[in-house]
Every structure is written in structure tokens, then in C-alpha cells.
User: Fold this.
Amino acid sequence: MTFNEILFEIKDRVATLTLNHPEVRNTISNIEIIEEIEAACRMVNDDMGINVLIITAKDPAFSAGGNIKDMAGRKGMFGGSPAQIMENYRKNIQRIPLAVHEVAVPTIAAVNGPAIGAGCDLALMCDMRIASERAAFGETFLTVGLIPGDGGAYFLPRVVGMARACEMTFTGEVINAEKAAAIGLVNAVVPHDQLMEKTFELADKIAAKPPQALRMAKRLLYAGQTMTLRQLLDESAACQALCHTSHDHMEALSAIFEKRKPVFTGE
Assistant:
């Protein structure tokens, strides 16, 4: 597929999706970018040679979320009757949280600048977040008379807890990278010029793991948020049985005995 709204690259089992419209602060509410994000996520899921997905953006912003000029002009997904706007959300921007959340491999947001509104939520959709010292985060919907329409009410409490999520949502305060780290919103804060280097260091550690087991581990972590303990144990036992009979498991054991690095094939 040819991408126009994003950049998409694959190197050493790590895919990188880069929002590529810095002139509009990488807004994500037009149908073209929504379709390309969705397509990139499908490509990652379909390619067993990919173990990690990084989502980042061209400077100076990570993403301003929805295009406020379109909101003011009632254009695109923000136009029509209330019933039409409801369907516009379902058929447009709400496809992003479904696509990113359902990526089968670990995802890392490399947040290079302000992540505001739906841009903040895009970072929250990822499993982990590395922030540049220039990053900022704001669940700013109420500031413009809106509510989180793209899944922020699902993701934010799961990342920072309900009390912090309520504070960020109800005040609309934009917090800097250091405060984001203090409340557990990001995994680390790094110098801006080292953002991608540090993100790839984390990605490479993860990408070195057995592909099938890695995908199963991610699935179990999220399943555990909604399953009972008994249900999760049953699911874990089934996955573990598959792992025990895999080539990669035996390769890992052989590498330990032979004091060498394992070579995983996803089999």
C-alpha cells in the first residue's frame, strides 16, 4: 500500500508509523489518515516478521487530535445532524482506537511533542510511552465543550487510575513530560534528540523475544483486565501448552545450555 498521510517503515522486526502532517500538528480526524493508520495496523498483524510497532510523529507536535478548524466550520466528520455526527464518529475516528488496541504485537508511542485531546488518547492506546522532554499531554475535550469521543474514557483510567483520569479530564490541564512520568502516564522521559534512539532500544529488547509467545503474552495481559482469575488461568494453560511444543521454546533452552544468543523463528 502507498501511504500519503503517514510514513511506515519496517526494520529488524520493528515497524514505525509516523504521523506526517506537521503543518496541521498531525491531526488525526480526516478519513485519509484514519484509513492509513488502520491499514498499517493490519499490516503489522498480518506480518509475523514484525514484533513491535512504534507510533510517533513529525515535529513539532505528536498530535493535536481533531482538527478544530473543521469543528468550527462543521466540516468533515464534525458536520451534519446530531445523529449524523454520532455515526461520523463511529465510522471515522473511532476506527483508530479499535485498530491500535487490537494490534497483536507490543506498541510504543514515541511522543515527540504535545499530545492533545485525541492525540493524547492515541498515545494512551499504545502499550507503552516514551516521552521527549518537549512532550505534553492534555485530555482537553471539556475545554472546547466536548467529551472524549475516541475512547479516552476507556484508556486514560487504565493507564493512570480513576482519580488521576478524572482530574485530567475534568480540568483539561495540559501536563508536561515530567508530571506525566510522575503519575505513570509515560514509561520514561528522554532528551528530545535521543527520543527515537531510546525508543528503539526498548523496541529492540522486546523484538528479540519469540514472536508467537510475545503475541500471546500481550493478549493475556489485556484479557486479564476483564476475565476472572479462573478464566485467565484456563487461557494461560492453553497458550502455555502451545509454547511448550514450539521450536522457539526449545531454541531458548538450547541457547541457555550452550551459552549463546537464541535465534527465534516464530515456529
Notes: DSSP finds twelve helices and nine strands in the chain. The first strand starts at residue 6 and ends at 11. Strands lie at 6-11, 14-19, 52-57, 107-111, 114-116, 128-132, 136-138, 174-176, 188-190.
